[in-house]
């Protein structure tokens, strides 16, 4: 009789043999993996000064670009003014509300940086059980401040 290890070895040998026959014994023709873009680059070593400087500069440019996309204090004040000006009555307690039509009007007047926030998807996300189909101006403004 064969030992348990010998049986496992024989089983593995047969599996490999049949697998290679089934596969055709050749490498795969699918080379799509060669088209996958590289997404990880190692950090430059201490002695690679040029690569370190390049990394610092590209990071600074990236952060500057992101910073320009953010709304500054004046733009936020303008947005609040427009939202307050276009609120839709009646108020719910102390909370000012705005309907979709006025929401779109504010979106047109608010400027290009704010345009990304005035979508139907965002309005629907903030829409709760208001009988008039409105959203809270304060909730929307807080959303803009968190996401922007």
TrEMBL record:
GO biological process: B cell homeostasis; cortical cytoskeleton organization; microtubule cytoskeleton organization; positive regulation of B cell differentiation; regulation of dephosphorylation; T cell homeostasis
Keyword Cytoplasm (UniProt): yes
Cellular compartments annotated: Cytoplasm
Keywords, sorted A to Z: Cytoplasm
Entry keyword annotation includes Cytoplasm: yes
Originating species: Arenaria interpres
GO cellular component: centrosome; cytoplasm; spindle
Name by which UniProt lists this protein: P2R3C phosphatase
InterPro entries: PPP2R3C
Top-level taxon of the source organism: Eukaryota
